[in-house]
Amino acid sequence: MKFISAITALSFAASSLLCHPSSAFVPAAYTTTLSKSSLQINNGGRDTMLTSQSNKPHRRISPSTSALSASASSMPPLSGGQSQQTKSSSSLNSSGTSGSSDENNSNTSTSLRQLTLYNSLTRTKTPFVPQSAPHVSMYTCGPTVYDSAHVGNFRAFLTYDVLKRVMLYLGYDVDHICNLTDVDDKIIKRCNREDMSLLELTRKFEGKFFEDLEALNIIKARGYPRATDHIDEMAELIIDLEKNGLAYQSDEGSWYFAVGKKEGYGTRLVQLDPDQLKKGASAATGGGGAQRGGMDADEYDAEKEGVRDFCLWKAFKPEFDREDATWDPVVELEGGGTRQIGKGRPGWHLECSAMARKYLGDTIDLHAGGVDLKFPHHENEIAQSEGANCAPFCNCWIHNGFVNIGDEKMSKSKGNFLTLRVACPTSDDVRAYRYLVASSQYRNPLSFTDAALGAAKGALKRLDRVKVMIDDVLSKEEGGDNNADRVDSDIVATVERELANFEVAIADDLSMPRASASLFSIVKSAEKEFKRVAKAAKDSDGDESDVVPPLDLIGLKSVQQALEKMDQVFGIYYDVPKVKGDESDDGDSASDDGDDASVPTDVMDLVAQRSAAKDAKDWGLADSLRSEITALGFAVKDVKGGDPIVSKV
């Protein structure tokens, strides 16, 4: 028997409020869709979740006119050359590195272990119940590819990875989509500043993003759809919203979502009163987006009916917009005729609703992102998706905490950010950052300091050392006695107990600090065994009459197997690939760190002034100078007891 989550059931009970502002007339096509959705939500047919889930019966879309060349696929290619239009479930091999193969994933609902997650929608920890277990549809917010992502951003992507690894470990089959925002105000401004085409700039930083994912051993999503490849789907969503009385076009041609007509807006993931929803008010969740920007990073200065209304489609403005970032889509209506929404480009909330609907369906199981995206971005996604689809958008929302530098959240707007290549110049640093994030409680803030990274590196050295020692001794004893008659191994008992504790911990809202404690309890048992035998050998002092006790090879074998099993979640035993283009002149590779010859004199003058201000404890001036340095395209990393590192961003 298949179950529907309580959230979904309650949402369907209140379905008349999802897609229109009141109990007014609902178009027949949408009534049909809602009825079908409510009856078939647990239909587990996997073939229906391959590429496009949108099956609206009343219209189709003609190809839009785009200044960008159409890409061969609607999503960037995955590693290994997989087709993006072929469903492939994520899987893990024994070493914890990523892979993709349907053949490796034969999970059934009978093998599932219960996972409990803190759901931002209910504000409580509840059992995770996907619509069609063991299959899980998962959507996550990706990067805006106008610059290299920083380590604060990668906390989110590592959180998604740990979450996905835990679900795979527990027996789920995860279908993951992560978007790429490749058109917005920041991208256009940087294209103009650097005299680059939209395609050239975004593909450059898209490539860097995927290189960083590889470096961090992050399992790839099924696909990474680009906003610019989904203009048609966004246009359709706007027309759907207009039909339901939730979208309108201003006199100057931009489209807006009518917030005042959507009951419950701003209260699903956060509790904001109308005064807090005024334009420019900062969200109670922390203000600017680690991946997106402030209150509305893509806000548009245009006519709108309500001060709270947010932009869906931005009308073309010759004084700002570019031809290679402008579209004029045409929607063909099912009953005949066409509809144009006007020349322009999408707002930054719209793409996620359109992509989630196309690739995962009207209702998804799980959506993840940074805590700063709760409002406005995720609230806007809910309003758009439920307003257009007349169905619950997402049953479980997961949000990770910030990464802080000192007492401040890391962000590009504050100028206190560090790219992965600057913050982690060596492969040991990269693996240490992965472990630092993977072993933390994802909902709490995480301080990025030299001490924290150093502690993570120390933990990894200990893990590496024990694994190498065990691998070495077991390889030498292969084919030997292996203590076959020893059945009372204390190590085996420890491993069994701590593996059970580990599995309880990861299933309890990803309690990774507890999981790490279990990992090191197992490591400690192996260390004690090596010390025991080493001490006995030392005490014998070469006396042949003293028999040195053998190592507990059965126990060490169980430790080896436990480390491999736990690493399916931690993902720390791997070789960090070399980054392509480390010899480039972008300035953000490890080989360029601290090379003052590549930094302009005026920037170095500002760095010197900032250091002097810090010495004088004039923190306001120091912050102001850092902002000036950031505006010139450089980042500063303070080094305790040494000169700051300056690098391009």
Topology:
Layout: H1 6-13, H2 28-40, E1 59-61, E2 90-92, E3 98-100, E4 116-119, E5 124-127, E6 135-140, H3 151-169, E7 173-178, H4 185-194, H5 198-215, H6 231-243, E8 247-249, E9 255-257, E10 310-315, E11 330-333, E12 338-340, E13 344-346, H7 350-360, E14 364-370, H8 374-389, E15 394-400, E16 403-405, E17 408-409, H9 420-423, H10 427-438, E18 446-447, H11 450-476, H12 490-507, H13 512-540, H14 553-570, H15 601-615, H16 619-631, E19 634-637, E20 645-648
Parallel strand pairs: 6-7, 6-14, 14-15, 16-18
Antiparallel strand pairs: 1-11, 2-3, 4-5, 8-9, 9-10, 10-13, 11-12, 16-17, 19-20
Helix pairs in contact: 6-7, 6-8, 7-8, 10-11, 11-13, 11-14, 12-13, 12-14, 13-14, 15-16
Beta content: 5-15%
Number of helices: 16
* Span between termini: 53 Å
Rg from alpha-carbon coordinates: 27 Å
Structural class: alpha+beta
Instruction: Give the strand order of the largest sheet, numbering strands 1, 2, ... along the chain.
Output: 7-6-14-15
Helix content: 25-40%
